[in-house]
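#dry-run=false #mode=assembly
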Amino acid sequence: QKEVEQNSGPLSVPEGAIASLNCTYSDRGSQSFFWYRQYSGKSPELIMFIYSNGDKEDGRFTAQLNKASQYVSLLIRDSQPSDSATYLCAVNGRNTPLVFGKGTRLSVIA
Amino acid sequence: EPEVTQTPSHQVTQMGQEVILRCVPISNHLYFYWYRQILGQKVEFLVSFYNNEISEKSEIFDDRFSVERPDGSNFTLKIRSTKLEDSAMYFCASSRDDYGYTFGSGTRLTVV
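#status=ok
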């Protein structure tokens, strides 16, 4: 059974701070790692993906992957109230469907 | 920006009835998926579809569920003999290369 684990939160950070979201996965064969943002009652929206060990930056977002530790993280710099949402970590292998974690609820306090 | 379109946005049905949820994936995408999310729970995989056939399905996708791509653009999920526990948000997704799925806005199914 492939599992993706996330702390459900809520994670509260002040506006302008760095939010750090973490995810672990059970399947060592996983190849692709995604972060989705989901606002309440809405569909998941892809914000970042990473395939290789290390860091990947896109604007205020940085994804970090450590395959040896089976660990993925997402950093959000200069957090804004509009970043308040649930962040879903999702993982898949070659030709296998995405498996989602339960998500971490982030609250950015103005 | 291309998007995945789902209809209806909300469907209410009586227990035991059949429902069809409709999706129009992004036109150049080759992989299609249905996921569901029960309120307050995680997004769960139901089925994947590639090259006009099911490529993988989960335990949730029992023999009451079926998928079809009837006309090369639409992708439908049919649920027969609906149960109260089928109440959830159903998301269609598509991808070009089996990575980075784009999700539709979802259909909220309520079984009463």
